C-alpha cells in the first residue's frame, strides 16, 4: 500500500492537501512501514492545478497512492480522489509516522 501524507515541513501533518507541495510517501506491507520518502511537487503538480485525474498522470510523483492523509481536505478534492479509488482521510493528528501506523492498524490486512 502507498500512503501520501501532506506535510509542509516533513515533521507535522499539514493542509489543505489541494495546495500542498510537500508530501511524505509511505510504502507499506502487512501493516508495517517499509519506506518513507519526501516528495516535493512542482507548481504544476499540486492537486489544485491538475487538469486530469491523478490516475491519468502516470509521471506524477503521487500517482499510484492508495490513501491520502491531510490536516484538511476539500470536499471536491476528496470526491475526485475517492472516485479514483484513493481513500482520503482528514486528521487532527500531527505526527505523520504515528498517524500512518494508526491507519494501518485499523485497515484490513
Automatic annotation (TrEMBL):
Q: What is this protein called?
A: Dinitrogenase iron-molybdenum cofactor biosynthesis domain-containing protein
Q: Which InterPro entries match?
A: DiNase_FeMo-co_biosyn_sf
